Amino acid sequence: MTALRYVYAVCRPLSAPLQAQLTGVAGIPARQLEHHGLIAVLSLVPEADFAEEPLKEHLEDLEWRTATDRAHQNVIDALTGVTTPLPLRLGTVFRDDSGVRVMIEEREEDFRRALERLEGRVEWGVKVYVEEEAEQEAKEDGRPAARPASGRDCLRQRRTRTVAHQERWQKADEFARRLHERLSGYAEDSRLHAPQNASLSGACGRNVLNASYLVPRARSEEFVELVDRAEDDTPGMRVELTGPWAAYSFTGSSNCSAC
After folding, report:
1. pLDDT for the residue 205
2. Which fold has domain 121-250?
3. What are the record keywords, sorted (predicted)?
4. Any idea where the domains of the chain sit in the sequence?
5. What are the residues whose beta carbons fall under 8 Å from the beta carbon of 242, sequence distance 6 or more?
6. By three-state DSSP, how is residue 212 classified?
7. Residue 70 and residue 51: Cα distance in Å, rounded?
8. Do the Cβ atoms of 59 and 17 come closer than 8 Å?
9. Other CB atoms within 10 A of residue 82 CB
10. What are the tens digits of pLDDT across the range 239-256?
11. Which of 2, 73, 135, 254 is the most exposed place for a label (fewest CB within 10 A)?
12. Helices marked H in 51-132 — which ranges?
């Protein structure tokens, strides 16, 4: 059976071997390939599943893609704990070791520049959600809104809700803007992403901030404390922190998954 090279990331040489139990896609152990002083972390995967056409079909299978994405991320997370990896896109596959070496040579300058800039840094993700109005009202008074006594009362309630709705979103936008400014001032770099669609993400509430921050690993604890304190600033807002991740949003290389 022909084995292809599924590449997860490029990094500098590791000070210790990869964990023996570290497995990647399809449950296959990850290994290292060194070239020009850089390391490609990869797995030998079966051509029957990872050649161009079968891989394209598999990636359209949600269950297969989810499992593969989880395994891919598992390797990236393990690398992030010991080095600064430059993650490659899900499904980056080469025919043989020579193909991997050619890729490294073609992107060597970009890889080295990115590794120099990102060394010792990690990415943190911060999202701000505004709770649904009905959910927030229930928290505030613990009972459903009273039924209107008349048509005029109904119109008055509707106008009140409209004004409250507008003020609510204005307040949310201002909170998100202030938080982003505060975190960006602490981080070395930041990226604003498009708000997530609740129907796709499954998260409760409306997403008003979706950002990534590049932070020195040594200062991450202080960054986390900043985010934790922000949660108490405004009722009705939920701040979600994720990370630390490999610096997906800051690699600046066309071969990297964030680009």
Report:
1. 82
2. Alpha-Beta Plaits (3.30.70)
3. Gas vesicle
4. 3-118, 121-250
5. 124, 125, 126, 127
6. strand
7. 20
8. no
9. 13
10. 999 999 999 999 875 445
11. 254
12. 52-59, 62-80, 97-118
